[in-house]
Amino acid sequence: MVGATATATEMQNNFGRYLTLVMNGSEVIVTKNGKEVGRFVPKGAAISYLTDSLTGILKGGYDLDGVREERVKAKYEAADRR
């Protein structure tokens, strides 16, 4: 839920006010020269956004630890071959 829009200067000068809005679940859109440059969002919303953006990328039984091990092994094997 967007709670406010603030210029970068307003955000800097009234950070506590905007922090309170975010802590209460609102989103603050930050603008500079009339263009959106960022969003100040509650932690839960940020995690949800990242998770939603990965939907469809991580299909099936994705084993993060296994993939990490394979990549590290391949990296060091490549270094040993040099």
Structural write-up:
It is a single chain. The protein contains 4 helices and 3 strands, in the order E-H-H-E-E-H-H. The relative contact order is 0.11. The chain has helices at 8-13, 15-23, 43-54, 64-80; strands spanning 2-7, 27-32, 35-40. By secondary structure, the chain is an alpha+beta fold. Helices cover 54% and strands 22% of the residues. The chain has one domain (2-80): YefM-like domain (YefM-like fold), CATH 3.40.1620. The longest helix is centred in the C-terminal third of the chain and has 17 residues, at 64-80. A hairpin with a 2-residue loop joins strand 2 (27-32) and strand 3 (35-40). It has a 3-stranded mixed β-sheet with strand order 1-2-3.
Largest sheet: 3 strands, mixed
Q: What is the SS-derived class?
A: alpha+beta
User: With helices defined by DSSP (H or I, 4 residues minimum), what is the helix count?
Assistant: 4
Distance between the termini: 53 Å
What is the CATH homologous superfamily assignment? YefM-like domain
Shape verdict? elongated
CATH architecture: 3-Layer(aba) Sandwich
Strand order of the largest sheet: 1-2-3
Range of helix content: 40-55%
Q: Which residues form runs of ≥5 with pLDDT under 50? A: none
In percent terms, what proportion of residues is strand?
Answer: 15-25%
Could you name the CATH class? Alpha Beta
Count of discrete structural domains: 1
The helix-strand sequence is EHHEEHH
Question: What is the CATH T-level topology?
Answer: YefM-like fold
Mean pLDDT comes to 80
Write down the Rg.
20 Å
Number of E-state strands: 3
